[in-house]
TrEMBL record:
PROSITE patterns: THUMP (PS51165). Pathway: Cofactor biosynthesis; thiamine diphosphate biosynthesis. CDD domains: THUMP_ThiI. ATP binds at L179, V180, H204, F205, K263, G285, Q294. It catalyses: [ThiI sulfur-carrier protein]-S-sulfanyl-L-cysteine + a uridine in tRNA + 2 reduced [2Fe-2S]-[ferredoxin] + ATP + H(+) = [ThiI sulfur-carrier protein]-L-cysteine + a 4-thiouridine in tRNA + 2 oxidized [2Fe-2S]-[ferredoxin] + AMP + diphosphate; [ThiS sulfur-carrier protein]-C-terminal Gly-Gly-AMP + S-sulfanyl-L-cysteinyl-[cysteine desulfurase] + AH2 = [ThiS sulfur-carrier protein]-C-terminal-Gly-aminoethanethioate + L-cysteinyl-[cysteine desulfurase] + A + AMP + 2 H(+). This is Probable tRNA sulfurtransferase. It comes from Candidatus Methanofastidiosum methylothiophilum. Catalyzes the ATP-dependent transfer of a sulfur to tRNA to produce 4-thiouridine in position 8 of tRNAs, which functions as a near-UV photosensor. Also catalyzes the transfer of sulfur to the sulfur carrier protein ThiS, forming ThiS-thiocarboxylate. This is a step in the synthesis of thiazole, in the thiamine biosynthesis pathway. The sulfur is donated as persulfide by IscS. Keywords: ATP-binding, Cytoplasm, Nucleotide-binding, RNA-binding, Thiamine biosynthesis, Transferase, tRNA-binding. Gene3D superfamilies: 3.30.2130.30, HUPs (3.40.50.620). It is an enzyme of class 2 (transferase). NCBIfam families: tRNA uracil 4-sulfurtransferase ThiI. One of its GO terms (molecular function) is tRNA binding. The lineage of its organism: Archaea, Methanobacteriati, Methanobacteriota, Stenosarchaea group, Candidatus Methanofastidiosia.
Amino acid sequence: MEGCVLVRYGEIALKSDQTRKWWNKTLLENMKDCLEKNNISYSSITVVLGRLIVYTENTRKASIALKNVFGITSLSPAIKMEADFEKIKEKSLELSQDKGKKFRVSARRITKDFSMNSNEVNEVLGAYLKEKLDLEVSLLNYDFEMGVEFLEGYAYLFTERIEAYGGLPLGVQGEAICLVSSGIDSPVAAWLLMKRGCKVDLMHFKITEEGYQKYLKIKENLQKFSYGHEIKDYIIDGVPYLSTTKQKLCEKGKEKWVCIFCKRRFLKEAERVCKEKGYLAIITGENLGQVASQTLKNLTVLDSTVKIPVLRPVLTYDKNEIVEMARTINTYQISKEKEPKCPFTPNYPMTAGSIEELESIERMLWE
Ligand code: ATP
Ligand code: MG
């Protein structure tokens, strides 16, 4: 008998042989990085049909750490044993002690080499445990689940299933750069692209020291989901550009354009770094209609700034949905901390800018 973690994955299984091999390999590397960074020792990780199995003494600690590795759908701290039904009964009895009154057995044959089918195991093992421990079978509303998975001649027994985030292994979808502020939305935007397999690096414009300190803590939390990739960041002092630009806009009576100029500057800088370093896209935390300036018109004006794709993964989410995700990734508490308001924001920001007007203001400013 051996302690291990059963790792289940989702979409990888649907891919062609070649893609699956590559994605599995990436997932495996990311898992190793996660275990190493969390100081969890393990003897090996094997890739078997539809599962990855991590051999470790610290099955629970490993499962909790690995939850943050994208591509994984769920994990179970488990015991690997010979697929001998009498021994399975004995071990299940031991594992089911003090786990509650209502239970169900969930057997699954991943490979079909065990002589009983899953229904038979559910029934016979269920009846055995019910009688021995005076339990009650409840398929929907149970205190614990006695899981048994059969795989290549072995049985894996577990009573816990930890749900993970799914997505794709980080790294299989290239690299992008995310404009991250100290607010709630952009960290979630970065996380969502990481979840879909992108390696994400960050760019922050430092406008206030407080905002920058919050950003640093956000980055640290995002790193906890970026196994296989050390997040790089680009910090730019936003004050010189914004002071000069705001002053010039005020002189021309166009103060309300400050935010658009500011966001365009962000995008231009990000595009420059993308071209230089080979990132494929820019990510932002913009949403539709969340703040006065986030109109479809303004977003169009912003898009005209750069030739590289601008991805806005939280565009369509309601605020409470974004907050929920921010809580999950532990950035909400940080983003919510008080900080001084941006000193450059005008009282009435432009809500319906047009590209023509923007271009004429630009000409006016720099003539
Ligand atoms: P967030 O919650 O991410 O701050 P927001 O709803 O406050 O977003 P805006 O202030 O309009 O929206 O900013 C839009 C986007 O511009 C942000 O989501 C982020 O991607 C980027 N951004 C804003 N401020 C900064 C900054 N100081 N450094 C880098 N990017 C920024
Ligand atoms: Mg903001």
